[in-house]
Amino acid sequence: MGRVSQAQAEENRRRVVDTASRLFREQGTQVSVADLMKAAGLTHGAFYKQFASKEALVDEATAHAFAELTQRHSAGLERHDGQREAAQQALVDTYLSVEHRDDPAHGCPVAALATDIAREGGGSEARRVYAEGVADFADFLASDDQDGIVRLCTLFGALVLSRATNGTPLSGEILAAAHAALTEGRATT
C-alpha cells in the first residue's frame, strides 16, 4: 500500500482527534486504540504514525473538546448580538436539557471528562487544558449577580447527576431544579 499524501495524513489526524474527542466524552478515555481507530475508519497501525502515545491523543482530544466549547460560547454571543446575559440564559437552557443529558458525545467536556481527568497525573497536558477550560467556562458564566464558578458547579453537578439517574423521574427533576436555581429572578427570553 502506498504512502498517503501530507494533506490526507493531516485529514486522518483531524478525523482521529475528532473521533477521540467524541468517544472520550461518551465512553471515557479507556476506549481502546483499536476501537477508536475503527470508529475513525482507519487501521490500528495508522495510530502510531499520527501519535506518540494514547496519552498524547488524550491531550489533543481534550484540547479539541474545549476548543469546540469555546466556539459554542462565541457563537452564542454572536446569536444574541453580544448580549452576554441572553447568551448565558440560552446556554443554561441547552445545558440542562434532556437532549444534552442524552448526548454526552457532543456535549460538555467539563462533565464528560471530569472523572478521567481526575485520574490523570497532576502534570498532564490534558489536566492543564481541562483546568484552563473550566476556568474559561466559569468566566463566561459569571454575571453581575452570580458567580461563574457557582453557576458552573450547578450546571456540572446537575448534568452528571441527571445522567447517573437517567431512566428515573429524579433525572428530570434534577435538571428542572438546577434550571430554576440558575434562572430564579431573571427574565426569561
Topology as H/E string?
A: HHHHHHHHHH
The major β-sheet equals:
none
Low-confidence spans: none
**SS summary, helix count:** 10
What is the helix fraction of residues, given as a range? over 70%
| Number of DSSP-assigned strands | 0
Q: Given the C-alpha coordinates, what overall shape results?
A: globular
Distance between the termini: 57 Å
User: What fraction of the residues are assigned to beta strands by DSSP?
Assistant: under 5%
Coarse structural class: mainly alpha
Descriptive overview:
The chain is mainly α. The chain is 74% helix and 0% strand. It contains ten helices and no strands. The chain has helices at residues 6-27, 33-40, 44-50, 54-79, 84-95, 98-101, 109-119, 125-141, 148-164, 169-183. Helix 1 (6-27) crosses helix 2, helix 4 packs parallel to helix 8 (125-141) and helix 8 (125-141) packs across helix 9. The chain is globular. The model has no long low-confidence stretch (mean pLDDT 92).
Q: Which key terms come to mind for this protein?
A:
74% helix, mainly alpha, 189 residues
